[in-house]
UniProtKB/TrEMBL annotation:
Segments of this protein annotated with the region Disordered: 264-304
Signal sequence region: none
Protein name according to UniProt: Bacterial transcriptional activator domain-containing protein
Entry-linked SMART domains: BTAD
Keywords: Two-component regulatory system
Organism of origin: Streptomyces alanosinicus
GO biological processes: phosphorelay signal transduction system
Basic and acidic residues composition-biased segments: 295-304
Domain of life: Bacteria
Record domain Bacterial transcriptional activator: where: 102-246
């Protein structure tokens, strides 16, 4: 082992394993270093729970024959056993020691409780004290680790984080805590800029606070990202959040009910396709011939 030896720590003291953002093990409040193979074993058990020896060997060394994989596992377990007890054997299965606290497990518990609260399945009184913190859901699972067995877990954690941030935004919105609702929604957008439901969360919060221009600006961010990256227009569910006259799209948007062309509220367009003499901007007409910009907009009267 390198750095502080795990063997130098008190086995009765708990260990903390961090997998979100980076791999880090702390024992008795001090960082502890482990060989790469030992780290992989702890990570696998932390994410998938109890596994047989043969299953662990097969997952971690799929290219090796059974005898070689079993030998590597025995060596790694022997090294783990030299210090603080981090892995136990129960009913013939390897399991992470009960004294090891894992940040992913805490995050998943907080996320599930938060999502249950937004669905009315549990009281908000039962939320963990840190459930309203965006920081809990900000980091990915072991970015930079590229292993086949880990990829599904990384996507599972990513999806849980995104849903939790959207649920947090919705909960804050219901409690009229608009700044926190926007913060949670924007955290989801940062994590996945092409995720419409994240943009919808931000737009709803802006509209609830009465900030129409901010809501339009967020719509434009989403529309531009979808157009540039995927070549598609926003969905009807996103489009209908905003008053009809302020929605923008450079192409016809087809959805259930017909095809519509939208014009941006941030660039005034006239019927002749020329240039606006007041602003110098290129003019293009709407279906109804109206011209719009951010200062001269007929935003309509649609309720939202």
């Amino acid at each position: 082992m390198t750095g502080q030896s795990v063997a130098s720590t008190d086995p009765e003291q708990g260990a903390v394993l961090r997998l979100l953002g980076t791999w880090k093990l702390s024992v008795n409040g001090q960082p502890a270093e482990l060989p790469a193979t030992a780290r992989r074993i702890m990570t696998l058990l932390a994410l998938q729970g109890p596994l047989t020896r043969s299953a662990v060997a097969c997952i971690l060394w799929p290219e090796a024959d059974e005898a070689t994989a079993s030998s590597r596992l025995r060596t790694a377990l022997w090294r783990l056993a030299q210090g603080c007890r981090l892995v136990d054997i129960r009913a013939g299965e390897l399991v992470l020691a009960a004294s090891v606290s894992v940040d992913v497990r805490r995050m998943l518990h907080t996320a599930r409780t938060l999502m249950d609260a937004t669905r009315g399945r549990t009281s908000t009184d039962r939320l963990p004290h840190d459930a309203a913190s965006v920081d809990v859901f900000e980091e990915d699972l072991l970015p930079g680790w590229y292993e086949d067995w880990l990829m599904i877990e990384q996507e599972r954690i990513r999806q849980t984080r995104l849903h939790a941030l959207e649920a947090l935004s919705d909960l804050m919105l219901r409690q009229m805590r608009y700044a926190e609702a926007i913060d949670a929604g924007l955290a989801a957008v940062r994590a996945e800029p092409l995720r419409e439901s994240a943009h919808r969360a931000v737009i709803r919060a802006h509209l609830a606070e009465g900030n129409l221009v901010d809501a339009i600006r967020q719509f434009e961010v989403c529309r531009h990202a979808l157009l540039e990256e995927l070549g598609v227009a926003p969905s009807a569910e996103l489009v209908t959040l905003l008053p009809v006259h302020v929605i923008s799209c450079e192409q016809d948007v087809a959805w259930e009910g017909g095809s519509h062309s939208w014009t941006s509220a941030f660039g005034r367009r006239g019927p002749d396709g020329g240039v606006d003499q007041a602003t110098g901007r290129r003019l293009r007409s709407q279906p109804d011939g109206k011209t719009l910009n951010s200062r001269h907009s007929d935003v309509g009267t649609r309720s939202y």
